[in-house]
Amino acid sequence: MVAMSMNQSAAPVSLGPYLLTADEPVVIEGLGWSGYETLLAMRGEKRRPRMIFFDGAVELMALSKRHERVRFVCGRLLEIYMLELGVPFSGYGQTTYKASHASAGFEADECYVLGEQRDDRPDLVLEVVCTNGGRGKLGVYKAFGVPEVWIWESGALQVYALGGGQYEAVARSRLLPGVDLELLARFIERAEELDSETMRAFRDAVRARGSVLDAEP
């Protein structure tokens, strides 16, 4: 991670001087809310680089092909799982969420609202970590009150649930207790295969697991 600082009274910063390497974030300190808004406006509709703002700093990240493949597969498999479980949901992808009162803003890898739609925050966020730990992002999600953050790293999914004002690692999702995290993780590892084959095989595995559970006394 590269960290750079800037006085808040300085002229709006340009993205030009900052060399972005895939999955290696650059952090610009001391921008303040107006600086964050300026960077978002300069970036425009391209939505790259990804931006997260918290505690007076903006994190910029260019995403690698590997990161995007895992992100896509992880999201689609979770959606298949929720469909099979009958969970009502709406996907908001990498939507920019901003809260000036909390001086925070984020763009998740994938995020979902469960049940009735809402605009202030998602209920569940997915983060894919290829080179840097994702737990450092929990602060910004706590500022929005996101109930759960799922982090994929090193071949495993870890769920962090918000309770008592802090995130804690839990063995099973509180929002989606029917999801087998190990099963989901095994299929996410197949991100280099054809998506259609992976998704069909995953759907069949989820249905087979459901049949086994239904048959248990």
Summarize the structure.
With 217 residues, this protein is α+β, with helices and mostly antiparallel strands.
Account of the 3D structure:
It is built from five helices and twelve strands. The chain folds into two domains: 2-61, no CATH class; 65-215, tt1808, chain A, CATH 3.90.1570. Helices cover 32% and strands 27% of the residues. It starts with a strand and ends with a helix. A six-stranded mixed β-sheet has the order 1-2-4-3-7-6, sandwiched between helices. A six-stranded mixed β-sheet has the order 5-8-9-10-11-12. It has helices spanning 32-43, 65-85, 138-144, 181-188, 195-215, and strands at residues 2-5, 26-29, 50-54, 57-61, 89-91, 96-99, 104-107, 110-114, 124-129, 148-153, 156-163, 166-170. A hairpin with a 2-residue loop joins strand 3 (50-54) and strand 4 (57-61). With 217 residues, the chain is α+β, with helices and mostly antiparallel strands.
Distance between the terminal alpha carbons, to the nearest Å?
A: 52 Å
Mass-distribution shape: globular
CATH level-4 homologous superfamily of the largest domain: tt1808, chain A
Give me the Rg, rounded.
18 Å
Low-pLDDT stretches:
1-13, 15-19
Report the average pLDDT across residues: 86
Largest sheet: 6 strands, mixed
CATH topology of the largest domain: tt1808, chain A
- CATH class designation of the largest domain: Alpha Beta
Our count of helices gives 5
Question: In which range does the helix fraction lie?
Answer: 25-40%
Q: How many runs of DSSP E, i.e. beta strands? A: 12
Order of helices and strands: EEHEEHEEEEEHEEEHH
Counting structural domains, the number is 2
Query: Into which percentage range does the β-strand content fall?
Result: 25-35%
Structural classification: alpha+beta
The main sheet orders its strands as 1-2-4-3-7-6
CATH-defined architecture of the largest domain: Alpha-Beta Complex
